[in-house]
Amino acid sequence: xxxxxxxxxxxxxxxxxxxxxxxxxxxxxxxxxxxxxxxxxxxxxxxxxxxxxxxxxxxxxxxxxxxxxxxxxxxxxxxxxxxxxxxxxxxxxxxxxxxxxxxxxxxxxxxxxxxxxxxxxxxxxxxxxxxxxxxxxxxxxxxxxxxxxxxxxxxxxxxxxxxxxxxxxxxxxxxxxxxxxxxxxxxxxxxxxxxxxxxxxxxxxxxxxxxxxxxxxxxxxxxxxxxxxxxxxxxxxxxxxxxxxxxxxxxxxxxxxxxxxxxxxxxxxxxxxxxxxxxxxxxxxxxxxxxxxxxxxxxxxxxxxxxxxxxxxx
Length: 314
Description:
It holds the Pfam family Phosphonate-bd. Residues 1-25 form the signal peptide. Helices cover 32% and strands 21% of the residues. Helix 1 crosses helix 7. The chain has helices spanning 52-70, 93-101, 115-120, 172-181, 201-209, 220-229, 259-270, 276-281, 293-296, 298-312, and strands at 24-25, 31-32, 40-47, 72-75, 90-91, 107-110, 128-132, 137-138, 140-141, 143-148, 163-166, 194-197, 215-219, 237-242, 246-247, 250-253, 287-290. By secondary structure, the chain is α/β, with parallel strands linked by helices. The relative contact order is 0.19. The longest helix is centred in the N-terminal third of the chain and has 19 residues, at 52-70. Strands 3, 4, 5, 6 and 16 form a 5-stranded mixed sheet that branches. The chain has a 5-stranded mixed sheet with strand order 12-11-13-10-14. Strands 8-7-17 form a 3-stranded antiparallel sheet.
């Protein structure tokens, strides 16, 4: 995934209580009767999936909506308001986890592979996932095993003795899921094929496309985004295998965010209508849906348990 499976400076919350007429988001992202008083601060951090400019191009409209709807000042880790700056923080996986656990960041997009660690450390479960309002269906993706279409590799076992690119050690679809699921299709990581870390799903796809890796384990949604952007031609890539569906990136808040502010962020997030650019990058998705952790993260948690069992058996 590029990542995948991405936040609060220890700023004291002002503890403002909403007036009885809680603001209700109106079409276009404005809020009727926005909460009175000074704006509360919420620090956001994003995964290093895209460059800062592209990240703000996709999610800046959402940040603006939160600001208007919830009377919130969305800031980066340096205390700059993202209403006046595009300097959003894009962090590696370890930095992203540390920023949430330390309270330096209060709002973050995280890939599924990080969620078990965060929940296990006492952080709240994710609250929002992209989805389709009409169907109520959350966004999901598959782990896919890809190779060049002109390569001799047509089924997974053709890759025995070869190198397969994984993305990063903590990535669900880029490393944890392949280690948990590939043995059932005849590919045991580090035993009958060599694992090579590419440092990102996009790098894995690009590496396959240009012949650096015979094959790669990547997230289907991140791969499709590269196709939409024109970074890779779908006709040049063959999918050898795909997994059952996984939950995609979700949004989470830090445990120190006040219940009142959490409720405000959730309400405003669920009222948000995706921008045209975001709809293009996430086909079929037009809003945020609530996360039902036990249901939506069942496959992720299965991979996590298998990973823990494998590590304990070493």
